[in-house]
Amino acid sequence: MSWNEIWDLLVGTLKTTGFPMLFAAGGWKYVVMWAFGCFFLYMAIAKDFEPILLLPIGFGIFLVNFPNTPLFGFTEGHPQLLQFFYKYGIIWEVIPCLIFLGLGAMTDFEPMISNPKMLLIGAGAQLGVFVTFTGTILAGFTIKEAASVGIIGGADGPTTIYLTAKLAPHLLAANTLAAYSYMSLVPIIQAPIMRLMTSDKERLIRMKIGRRCSRTELVLFPLICGAIIALMVPAVMPLMGMLMFGNLMRVSGAVKRLTNTASTALMDIVTIFLGLSVGASMQAHVFLTYKPIMVFGLGLIDFIVCTAGGIITVKIINLIAKEKINPLIGNSGVSALPMSPRLSQMMGQQYDKKNYLLMHAMAACLAGSIGSPAAAGMLLSMFE
Question: 147 is in which domain, residue-wise?
């Protein structure tokens, strides 16, 4: 073999590596995305912020942002590994529905059933969805993009994924990451709003413990709730149907093994695929553009307005109701479970150590977990 042939072989081999693209024009974008990925890994590992999701998302971001890696995209028409998960799990809406199945199997709706007024808090907390929808259009987004961004404030990751995959799949990574990021930052974002919007007197309101629900009520709830949602917002039934089915398995007590599988092993498996798929979709040439970066600012405004909407709703209820509601649970109208209810409890006990708001806040949060998909269903029926 001559020196020229050896040299051509070395040059050809070098071209198959990622170095030529890394040092070419625009190579800095890869470095920026590595930093993004490492930031989310740091938040998950060092700060313990939503590690179950932020760790696979962060590693997915880090992994795919190396040039020439056959992980995300297509090769001769066939999906590569993470593209396969993304296409069949998220674009085909399988993973969000399976997550709702697991959530239903994990969820006890009794606190909300025993105090139906909490449904109003969950509905009021969707205020930010429609405010941000309007603002996003004014910022230059299309109607479908605005609808997908607006749902971020509901703090419901699977619903954000479901709606965005249908209306604006090119914003899926940014919307999902914004939704889960703000969920993990609940204490930082919501606490100042709660202090600002409540008085010392309101923070001291004590609420009565809700009544115990009968087994019949618990079994009928997923059937009745599922039927009402199917009639009013049928577009969101793939999510809500799975949520109610999972809850029916739980409360019936007839399929304990299936309930345990849905709430543990199945949830863990789909969460791994969800995190990696979403992270992998954040490739530098897609993510580092105007609209995905704007999503983070709009999503923050959305989350703030939704939090304020829940608190305002409580104040309105208190003008009419004989039994007052502590407005500190208004923040839990967004479905950031369990972070928002935990924050309500912590702040309530800062002002009255014997005030127990956790179960009431859980009820508001469960109402939000119904309100957010309902809002998504309305947007989907109007703009799909």
Answer: 71-383
